[in-house]
Amino acid sequence: MFNCSWADGVICMDQVKAMSHFIEKLYTNRLMLRKVRQSDLALLVQWSQSKDSYGDYLSPEFFELHHLQQKLDSGVLWNDEEKIFLIERRRDAIPLGTIHYWQPPGKVDTVTVSVKIANFSERNKGYGTEAQKFLLIYLFDKIGVKRVEMYTDIDNLGQQRCLRKLGFRLVESLTYDDLHIKRTGNLYRLDVSHYSEELIYRFHYE
Length: 206
Hints:
Layout: H1 13-18, E1 25-27, E2 31-35, H2 41-48, H3 51-54, H4 65-74, E3 82-89, E4 95-102, E5 110-117, H5 127-143, E6 147-153, H6 157-165, E7 169-178, E8 181-191, H7 192-197
Parallel strand pairs: 5-6
Antiparallel strand pairs: 1-2, 2-3, 3-4, 4-5, 6-8, 7-8
């Protein structure tokens, strides 16, 4: 067993399982994933309306500040079935994007995850892979989900490589709804049995 803590970004399974269900921050070596605060809302609105932020493979959310405030106040952004984390770089507190999970209706013990590195100057540095890896560890080892699903645009080859690195299997190619925009893409899935076999989750080298 590793002698380690979440604070230094290394995984210790006893510590993971002892963590509070109400945890509001996850730490990796370079990142902090934390609960969205009121002070973040203006930035989320900006990202949702910026082509540079949502890029070629995600759909614009076009958030409005008062609607986001209502969601924050009512707990829509953070509850037992759904959480949106802000991804922040630890060394300088620069916000990089968001990572979001939710339980789809009718799918027991399954969550869907989406990630967005909205700070486009910080892409291609491994931050998305690192954020996804540590969120997956939290979901499987703390929350106890049985499978995680992620959708990716068929042309988003970088994210597809990332998902394969994280142990996801291609389930099918399909047309799916992304914020009321029809996309052709791939559905990837990682179940708990394959997760437990993947060494990337046992050794910290991101």
